[in-house]
TrEMBL record:
Ranges that cross the membrane: 63-85, 140-161, 228-253, 265-284, 291-307, 313-336
GO cellular component: membrane
Signal peptide: none
Protein family (similarity comment): Belongs to the autoinducer-2 exporter (AI-2E) (TC 2.A.86) family.
Bilayer disposition of the protein: Multi-pass membrane protein
Tagged with keyword Membrane: yes
GO annotation, biological process: transmembrane transport
InterPro entries membership: AI-2E-like
Main location: membrane
Organism: Companilactobacillus farciminis
Pfam families found in the cross-reference section: AI-2E_transport
Keyword match Transmembrane helix: yes
Protein name: Permease
Amino acid sequence: MSLYDKFVENKRLRRVVLLIIVIGVFYLFKSMMSMFLLTFIFTFLSVQLVRTVQKKIPKIKPVWIIAPTYLIIIALLVFVIANYVPQLVNQTVKMFTSLQSFYESEEVRSNPYLNVIYNYLQQINLDNQIKVAVTSVVNYISSVGAVGFNIVISFLLSFFYTSQVEQMNSFGRQFLDSKYSWIFADLQYYGQKFVNTFGVVLEAQLMIAVVNTALTTITLLFMRMPGIIALAAMVFILSLVPVAGVIISLVPLSFVAYSVGGIRYVIYIVIMIIVIHLIETYFLNPQFMSSMTHLPIFFTFIVLIVSEELLGTWGLIVGIPIFVFFLDILGVHSIGGPKKRRIKLKKTL
């Protein structure tokens, strides 16, 4: 028996080697990690939706389910952008204009207390500070544009995959009968395990997003903010990004709050975001993640902290699935606890 045949026969060794190679490939393409993960998330949710509907209506084709769903999502996004982006821009300009007028007014220079602040601003060269701030905002907008591009591409890829999910599955099964079928069989083994773990964590994050949206919406109702439905939809979408999503929502919410009640409402919004951020970080994330993955809260905290340090914001999303994935491979822990609650999916590559 040749060395290659011995290697193929040794299932444990070949799977370890293949896993190392896969990790190396992802490391080489780490700049595209956001697109990979977004495509996976959108596709996972879409396939789950298709399977759920097909349980009720077995003969319906995936394209008739996914096409209307994606059209509704696009329509909602267009509605939010068309109604609130101009308002955000106008409020931003208004805020900077009012601050500049106040800074240059006689009221500031004639008031001895405000004059101290004025002289201090002169010493720190406020004009240059504003230019630096504007440059930072432009860079931030550029990064948001790159993220938006990844979202659009991932959205399209997930649509094409899900609309032809049966054909994709059929095409993927052909690799299991190829000359190097063991490679694709092992990839399928790892893929199914990761889908199981990621699906459970994604379910937990959806619950967290619902709680965040409910708390935010209740606060906005008490503040009598306009466009509650659209703002709640925006908060829900951003809440799907762990921890960071709540903070990102602070920017548009602050602009809208300023248009309604001035700086006092902005302070209320900041306090609300801080409270929700603390609730999510120290209660919702550990509680939901540990209950869904059956991990002790201590390990959940440690994994979230370490994965965020290693992978950034995405680490908060994929850290727990990766950790449970490796525990499952090592035979230490299987997702779903004793009952081994698994997400049943058809074989895909």
